[in-house]
Design a protein that fits this description.
heterodimer; A: about 575 residues; alpha/beta; ABC transporter transmembrane region fold; Rossmann fold; 3 domains; six-stranded mixed sheet; four-stranded antiparallel sheet; 23 helices; elongated; B: about 550 residues; five-stranded parallel sheet; 20 helices; 9 strands; about 65% helix
Chain lengths: ~575, ~550
């Protein structure tokens, strides 16, 4: 298991489809051998069945004995056993091949996804594309499997059947083989409408699904606004559209294959007629009954097989489409550099500014210095740029001026070095669907309790039946909003960074807990510098410095000074107090 | 209990299928004929082959017409099979449409209480996947099973007439084959369920990664995430490996069994023993036909196994649909009462009299509550969570009926007002804005034909949002999506939606939670614009004071009732 996993991501050229084949040479060798044995051995069935019928005839004429039949039957069973045994191996290994391929592709895709930056994922919709690509990986592997299968089942089998038929009566064989191509060409022609109607049905089904979701999730809203009847009518329209498109698509997919097969089977008229004459001795060549039945049943199998060829072709084509979609994301997975630990230091921000293209500057001319261990409060009205300041520390947005740590410019540092300095917690707790322990330690081996204690979550976790092994659900939805926030804060503390940027970390907490956690935080990360961004002002009296964002300018001062000098600041404090009272305990 | 559900399920399913059949009689007849025809014609060719080979082995050439007849049957069988598939497709689509129609109608008839209690995701899956399984129940299940059973029995009868010994042998072999088939199918199903579970983790991790990418990078846990992903993909890999094994082994074993049966029959019919001969003896042509039939009998058997599985899973879906359709429906509304209320004069806008209400019998939320609001008055409801502020709104909106007492809106009973007459009476500003699929304009009109573009724009102006909307790339026709507006602007949009139909009463549900001061000011201004001249009921927030008017405190009922 370990081996195949590393084989997947260790491909030297994951962007080449042949890499996936060459990475699995031993499996492909097994498939080749068993595939050849099976497909050539396929002829054994009709051949021996013909021989047995002939033997029965000979016995009835007194020209053969029971021993001959016994011998024939035993050989027949042995051969069928070998053939079917090979078939099992071929089927199993070709599926394993596809399974391995899908797994490698997914791991590579994921490996790349996880290295995309937030901006890339947000802006270019790369996230969506990769999500689609992962589901394409299955289609792609399935197509590669069918291609491999087709190589044998259609290629080898059709060739060996053709030779088999030719060897019995080449003229009759040629005559018969005129028809399968006709059926094949027809099937190929139908591919266009198949795809077109299939696509239309898929789109209609998508629209119907969203209409369903909207109708159900919005049921109460529509009721309150009296719009239910209108929405029902809209839903009925979607239903009618889906019915029409669905019927059209399925007609091509389900109703046509029997027709293709019938076309290939026109040849049986010739087989019966000319074959019968062969047996009578008046045809192109001389046959016995065994040859007659073997020829007929081989041809029938060939016709059925070739009618499947169209289906396989479709799968291969689908795989090509999938492959084209995922190929751009199948690049070598970058190495993950370890994050180096950093000591406390001095934060120096000089002439900092953010201007989004085509807009007035959001912030400009901000300069301040924070000594190791200082706590700096950052506040201002919503959309004043304080969150943007936080994100600048992550290198997520371009800014003017410099942010430097112990004299090193942050923007010049490698991402892992910068991440070794800055510990960031944003509005969204960004929790993972795993246990509480996982969410705090993110795979590190450590004691999780000190962190839970620091964020006042220890008692609640102790009360949970499974303690730190409690699974918190997608986005932590089994926890309350306040618990989610605190868990995320515990995770941030466990990073042990010399500089913390915390964007509104206490928004869902009551005041006492807020104070308590802040005290713990200061005690646990004594040397760490703290940037606290919030419009909740309760903690601001404890801040060493306060940055007040206001209409593009920033005032760097202290709580006490601002309270007396800035009416805006005083108002923010008053508002925040009001808000606090509004919170229902 | 379970039994009863199953019975009811069958009733609803049959009703929909029955209704579809009645509406499309010709189609139904066509389906039946095509199935019967396809099965019968499919069975005949080997009989002709038998005759041909028998004639040949007797040293006689058969007539050309026999060769033609052989192909003719194949041709007709193919054609009928094609018809069968086509007609079944049409029929299946009609059934699903009928069922979805029923479900949608039912949604309109369910009381608000039931709607809000239900998990909307689960209800959606009634509409989508459960309906699909019922269609499967019909065509891939029952219909195909009948066709396959007929085929198995017919082949068996033909074989019995040709070689009694063989049919006896098959009586032993077929049950074994069927058991093997079911075994493989059950194990496969189990592995598939495992795989689906694993895949849910695999696919779930990707949106999680995208959402949490900032944390992943900042904490340097990319490799931890890759390990997690690898683990989930590995789970799926192993489950698929299981399925693959069964997938790979099934058919080879069947074909081997087929060969063994053929071998035994040939051996026995070749034995000189007259007693055995009386059971197994046959002519060469018959032998050829028999070999062909033996290989034909295994396919329908395999299908029957699948069909059993389909029926089993479809029944579960049908039961769920039935439970949904069987739910109690809402009370009768009185058409015209809404309009009557609109034209009423000299009555209170809202008259709540001695109302007692609880969502269930254990807990009373409101007890003997009374409130009268005159037209044009502004009233703010205060009280802690659970005191019944939102509940009172729901009662006013007629979503629930009081257990005791009366609620009148402009003189008419609130619960009796039909839904489609409500929008002119109430403008309800929801706590959370619900975006609907469509343009910005659609958000305001909610697809209501009665609301013109001008009305919507007017509403947006009142809600202080018109300028913002006009700055969007396509103005009011910009497709709406998350992130198009800020949190405060969504609330303004919610206000525009509420007042678009110029309702007489405005209900404000605690809308200014979580806003900063500047945005709050805009929202407040919009509310004041919107309130102009209307009767306003508002649930307390700290800005209520700026709205003025009367304050009504609701006391929590919990202590009193227990």
């Amino acid at each position: 298991m370990k081996k195949s996993s590393s084989a997947g991501t260790g491909l030297t050229h994951p962007e080449k489809i042949t890499s996936y084949f060459s990475a699995q040479r031993p499996i492909l060798l097994v498939i080749t051998i068993t595939g050849l044995v099976y497909n050539i051995g396929l002829l054994a069935g009709p051949y021996y069945e013909g021989q047995m019928a002939q033997c029965l005839l000979d016995i009835s004429r007194g020209e053969a004995a029971f021993q001959d039949m016994l011998h024939l039957v035993l050989t027949y069973l042995l051969v069928i056993f070998l053939v079917q045994g090979s078939r099992f191996c071929k089927r199993f290994y070709v599926r394993r091949f596809a399974n391995n391929t899908a797994r490698s592709m997914k791991e590579i895709l994921y490996g790349n996804l996880v290295h995309h930056s937030k901006q890339e994922l947000d802006a270019q919709g790369a996230g969506n594309l990769i999500t689609k690509a992962v589901s394409d990986a299955d289609d792609c592997a399935e197509g590669m499997r069918k291609f491999t299968t087709e190589l044998f089942d259609t290629g080898v089998a059709l060739i060996s059947y053709t030779f088999f038929l030719l060897s019995y009566d080449w003229r009759l064989a040629l005559l018969c083989l005129l028809f399968p191509p006709v059926s094949y060409i027809l099937a190929d022609r139908m591919k266009v409408p198949v795809q077109r109607t299939g696509q239309a049905a898929k789109e209609s089904s998508g629209r119907l699904s969203s209409a369903t979701l909207d109708r159900v999730f919005g049921a109460l809203t529509y009721r309150v606004f009296g719009c239910e009847q209108a929405r029902n009518q809209d839903y009925e329209d979607h239903l009618a559209d889906y019915e029409q498109k669905g019927i059209r698509a399925n007609l091509f997919v389900l109703a046509m294959p029997p027709i293709y097969q019938v076309i290939s089977l026109v040849s049986v008229i010739f087989i019966l007629w000319f074959g019968g004459r062969n047996v009578m001795g008046t045809g192109w060549t001389t046959w016995d009954v065994a040859a007659f039945t073997a020829f007929l049943s081989s041809y029938t199998k060939l016709a059925v097989k070739s009618s499947h060829a169209a289906k396989l072709f479709n799968a291969v084509q689908k795989a090509q489409v999938s492959w084209r979609r995922i190929k751009p994301f199948l690049t070598k997975v970058p190495e993950e550099p370890a994050i180096p630990a950093k000591d406390p230091g001095t934060l120096r921000v000089r002439d900092f500014g953010i201007t989004f293209p085509g807009q007035a500057p959001l912030v400009s001319g901000l300069s301040f210095t924070a000594a190791p261990g200082e706590a700096i409060g950052v506040t201002g009205p919503v959309a004043c740029g304080k969150s943007a300041l936080g994100q600048a520390f992550l290198g997520e947005i371009p800014y003017a001026g410099t942010i430097s740590w112990n004299g090193q410019d942050l923007s010049g540092l490698a991402p892992e070095v910068r991440n070794g300095i800055v510990g960031y917690l944003g509005h969204d707790p960004e929790l993972f669907d795993g246990t509480i322990e996982d969410n705090v330690l993110l795979g590190k081996k450590e004691d999780v309790w000190p962190y839970l204690k620091a964020v006042c979550l220890d008692k609640e976790v102790q009360a949970m039946e499974e303690g730190i092994q409690t699974r918190i659900g997608p986005s932590g939805n089994r926890l309350s909003g306040g618990q989610q926030k605190r868990l995320a804060l515990a995770r941030t503390l466990a990073l042990h960074r010399p500089l913390y940027v915390l964007d509104d970390p206490f928004s869902a907490l009551d005041r006492n807990t807020e104070q308590q956690i802040f005290a713990n935080l200061r005690a646990q990360c004594k040397g760490s510098t703290l940037l606290y961004l919030s419009h909740r002002m309760e903690l601001f009296p404890q801040m060493d410095q306060v940055l007040l964002f206001q209409g593009g300018r920033v005032i760097v001062s202290t709580h006490a000074a601002l309270l007396s000098d800035s009416p805006e600041y005083a108002q923010l404090v008053a508002l925040s107090r009001g808000k606090g009272e509004d919170h229902e305990a | 209990m379970k039994r009863e559900h199953q019975n009811r399920a069958v009733n609803y399913g049959l009703r929909s299928i029955g209704a579809t059949m009645r509406h499309h009689l010709l189609l139904t007849l066509g389906v039946a004929l095509a199935i019967a025809g396809a099965v019968i014609t499919g069975l005949l060719p080997p009989l002709i082959l038998e005759k041909a080979v028998n004639l040949l082995s007797a040293g006689e050439m058969f007539p050309f017409s026999l060769a033609l007849a052989y192909f003719g049957l194949l041709f007709v069988a193919g054609l009928l099979e094609s018809c069968k598939q086509a007609l079944l497709t049409v029929f299946g689509q009609k059934i699903t449409r009928e069922l979805r129609h029923e479900l949608c109608q039912k949604l309109t008839l369910l009381p608000a209480g039931v709607l809000s209690m239900q998990d909307a995701g689960a209800v959606s899956s009634r509409f989508v996947s459960d309906v699909d399984t019922v269609e499967n129940l019909f065509d891939d299940g029952v219909v195909s099973m009948i066709a396959d059973l007929v085929q198995v029995v017919s082949i068996f009868v033909i074989l019995f007439s040709r070689n009694r010994g063989l049919s006896l042998l098959l009586l032993v072999v077929l049950p074994l084959v069927f058991w093997y088939t079911r075994h493989v199918q059950k194990r496969t199903l189990r592995a598939q369920v495992d795989n689906r579970r694993a895949l849910a983790n695999v696919t779930g991790l990707i949106p999680e990664t995208i959402r949490n990418i900032r944390t992943i990078h900042n904490s340097g846990s990319a490799s931890w995430m890759r390990t997690r992903y690898g683990r989930y993909v590995g789970d799926s890999y192993r489950a698929i490996e299981q399925t693959n094994f069964f997938d790979a082994i099934y058919s080879p074993i069947i074909l081997l069994t087929n060969a063994v049966v053929v071998g035994i029959v040939m051996l026995l019919s070749a034995s000189g023993n007259p007693e055995i001969q009386s059971f197994f003896g046959m002519q060469v042509g018959t032998a050829v036909a028999v070999i062909s039939y033996i290989s034909q009998i295994f396919t329908p058997l395999e299908n029957i196994g699948m069909e059993i599985q389909t029926i089993q899973s479809a029944l579960a879906g049908l039961t769920r649909i039935n439970e949904f359709l069987g739910q109690e429906e809402t009370w009768k509304k009185v058409p015209g009462t809404g309009r009557a209320a609109l034209s009423a004069t000299d009555v209170p806008a809202v008259a709540v009299q001695d109302v007692t209400f609880g969502y269930n019998s254990e807990e009373t939320v409101l007890r003997n509550f009374s409130l009268t609001v005159r037209p044009g008055e502004t009233v703010t409801l205060t009280g802690r969570t659970g005191a019944g502020k939102s509940t009172l709104f729901r009662l006013l909106l007629g979503l629930y009926r009081p257990d005791a007492g009366q609620i009148r809106i402009f003189g008419q009973e609130a619960a009796g007002i039909p839904d489609n007459e409500k929008r002119a009476l109430f403008g309800y500003v929801e706590q959370n804005f619900r975006m609907v699929p469509g343009t910005v304009l659609d958000q305001i009109t909610l697809f209501d034909d009665g609301i013109t573009r001008e009305m919507a724009e007017e509403a947006a102006k009142t809600a202080e949002l018109d300028a913002v909307i006009r700055q969007l790339p396509k103005g009011y026709d910009t497709p709406c999506r998350e992130g198009l507006f800020s949190q405060g602007q969504w609330q303004l949009l919610s206000i525009a939606r509420a007042i678009a139909a110029s309702p007489r009463i405005l209900l404000l549900d605690e809308i200014t939670a979580n806003l900063d001061a500047a945005t709050e000011e805009t929202v407040l201004k919009a509310i004041k614009n919107a309130a102009g001249g209307r009767t306003v009921l508002s649930i307390s927030h700290r800005l209520s004071a700026s709205l003025g008017g009367r304050q009504i405190a609701l006391a929590p009922e919990a202590g009193e009732s227990s």
